[in-house]
Specification:
- The chain is an alpha/beta fold.
- The protein contains 16 helices and 14 strands.
- The strands form 4 sheets. It has a 6-stranded parallel beta sheet with strand order 6-3-2-7-8-9, with helices on both faces. Strands 1-13-14 form a 3-stranded mixed beta sheet, with no helix packed on it.
- The longest helix is centred in the middle third of the chain and has 24 residues.
- The two termini are 26 Å apart.
């Protein structure tokens, strides 16, 4: 397990981000920026904080053995941040935000369209105070269009943006992805947009407004299936674990469970047939090419299924690996985090937490590996208002945080 890092120079060291976001899309974005070295000031409602703090169980176990008010959901997207409890609905609180914006490079918010204007915290107002400010607004449908006024939640974005129509078994109901992937991908698009805007800021000295919607980004990551439709005019069907353009590429049942077969070309299919002791299948005109296999997909799967069920997962995967046929296990989360690969890549990290019984919490590691400016885990997810005195003291002239 990777432990919290000693201070090093991250690629975004010196960048300050004012984070007015909550839930998942905005926090995912700002956590990434924090992992890369930026100083993230997370603004929260006094006494309540980010909505996801209460989205449990599970919660962090406290020193008394009982649950704290810190949910695992909140922990997932809020490390490397300082929490500042400020009520922006008051004149004093709004002025604190303006003062912080004056000293920030980036602001991220996910209020409803126009929701911050009444406090004088919209882009137009804050850009007059700080022309260098990169201001990123994350909403359900973006700042324009007939649905701009509607709220945005992950499942709504998955439904409206089409991914649910592609997910699930052919005979079942539409299914959302098992995690809030529309939120997470929106946060990633927001992060890359901010990095691009920071490059522009460095060249020109000016900031800009970034407008990102959950539904827009959901549509963007329809990728091949979306383009399949635009090219053919035919709406894709739900195929369960099958691939729309390659076969066999799906989960199969073995003697002792399920595994993945991911044949990507005709030569791999030939080797897979050899492994199954049925080399003639690769010469069958129904299966000899990928195009033929797609045309006869049902017959192909009906033919392969009984052959695969005769093998154990370990034996079949070992043979596939030896012959260069792509495939793999379908791991449970205990198996994922116990794997030697996850350990070698630092995909579980331990960071400090002020309310945890052990003084630390375990989190999912950042997957990015920089050669010169590594990702750092400097701070665990803060409790609500943990850094208020420190940051407000800085605004009053005390030493700067970070």
């Amino acid at each position: 397990m990777t432990m919290v890092s000693a201070p090093v120079h991250g690629p975004l060291e010196g960048v300050r981000v004012l984070d007015l976001s909550r839930i998942l899309a905005g926090p995912t974005c700002t956590q990434l920026l924090g992992d890369y070295g930026a100083d993230i000031l997370k603004i929260e409602r006094p006494g309540a904080g980010d909505d996801t703090r209460q989205w449990g169980p599970p919660y962090v176990t406290g020193r008394d053995g009982g649950p704290t008010g810190e949910s695992a959901y909140y922990l997932a997207a809020n490390r490397n941040k300082r929490s500042v409890a400020v009520d922006m609905a008051t004149d004093e609180g709004a002025q604190v935000i303006r003062d912080l914006a004056r000293h920030s490079d980036v602001l991220v918010e996910n209020f409803k369209v126009g929701g911050l204007k009444k406090y004088g915290l919209d882009y137009e107002s804050l850009s007059r105070i700080n022309p260098r400010l990169v201001y990123c607004s994350i909403t359900g449908f973006g700042q324009t269009g007939p649905n701009a006024h509607l709220p945005g939640y992950d499942i709504m974005a998955q439904g409206y943006g089409g991914i649910m129509s592609l997910t699930g078994s052919p005979e079942g109901e539409p299914v959302k992805v098992g995690v809030g992937i529309a939120d997470v991908m929106c946060g990633m698009y927001a992060c890359t947009a901010i990095l691009a805007a920071l490059h522009h800021q460095k060249r020109t000295g000016t900031g800009q407004h970034i407008d990102i919607g959950l539904v827009d980004t959901q549509i963007a990551w329809l990728v091949n299936e979306g383009t399949n439709y635009l090219t053919s005019g035919k709406a894709p069907e739900r195929r369960g674990n099958q691939h729309p353009n390659i076969a066999p590429y799906q989960a199969f049942e073995a003697k002792d469970g399920h595994l993945i077969v991911a044949v990507g070309n005709d030569s791999q299919f030939g080797r897979f047939c050899n492994i199954l002791d049925h080399p003639a299948l690769a010469q069958d005109e129904r299966f000899a090419t990928n195009m033929a296999r797609l045309a006869h997909r049902d017959t192909l799967i009906e033919t392969l299924g009984p052959l695969i069920r005769q093998r154990t997962k370990a034996a079949l995967l070992a043979a596939m690996q030896a012959q260069g046929v792509p495939g793999g296990p379908i791991n449970t989360l205990p198996e994922v985090f116990a794997s030697d690969q996850a350990e070698a890549r630092g995909m579980k990290v331990s960071v400090p937490h002020s309310q945890s019984a052990t003084g630390t919490v375990d989190l999912i590691g950042n997957p990015v590996k920089f050669s010169e400016t590594p990702v750092t885990y400097r701070m665990g997810p803060p409790v609500c208002g943990e850094h208020t005195a420190e940051v407000l003291g800085w605004l009053r002239g005390q030493p700067q945080p970070g």
